[in-house]
């Protein structure tokens, strides 16, 4: 019954900012990995940012421009994106892996950055 629902995507101008939200519902065991990933047309899904081993990790392409945050009480994880570029255009997915090795994905939210 675990579900991840992303929201906050949309159209933004180059240089603008956007915050994505991922709300988790259902019973969860201990989370090993929690993060944001993206997939552009013709590309494979790639890491954007994640929590892993108590620390954060960012893709080189977004480091310094994005931040990942979590509100435990609301069971929501956020991706704050700044200084967006057209190459950031993609479907952004929220995903997690539990200590039991279970993987869950949201359905994604579209982010489009215009020049």
Which value, in Å, is the CA radius of gyration? 14 Å
Please give the alpha-carbon distance between the first and last residues: 40 Å
- Please count the beta strands (DSSP E, at least 2 residues each): 11
Largest sheet: 7 strands, mixed
Low-confidence stretches: none
SSE string, helices as H and strands as E? EEEEEEEEEEE
The percentage of residues in β strands lies in: over 45%
Class by alpha and beta content: mainly beta
What is the share of helical residues? under 10%
Mean pLDDT: 95
Fold and architecture overview:
With 115 residues, the chain is an all-beta fold. It contains no helices and 11 strands. It has strands at residues 3-7, 10-13, 18-25, 31-39, 46-52, 55-58, 66-71, 76-81, 90-98, 103-105, 109-114. Strands 2, 4, 5, 6, 9, 10 and 11 form a 7-stranded mixed sheet that branches. Strands 1-3-8-7 form a 4-stranded antiparallel sheet, with no helix packed on it. The chain is globular, with a radius of gyration of 14 Å. The mean pLDDT is 95.
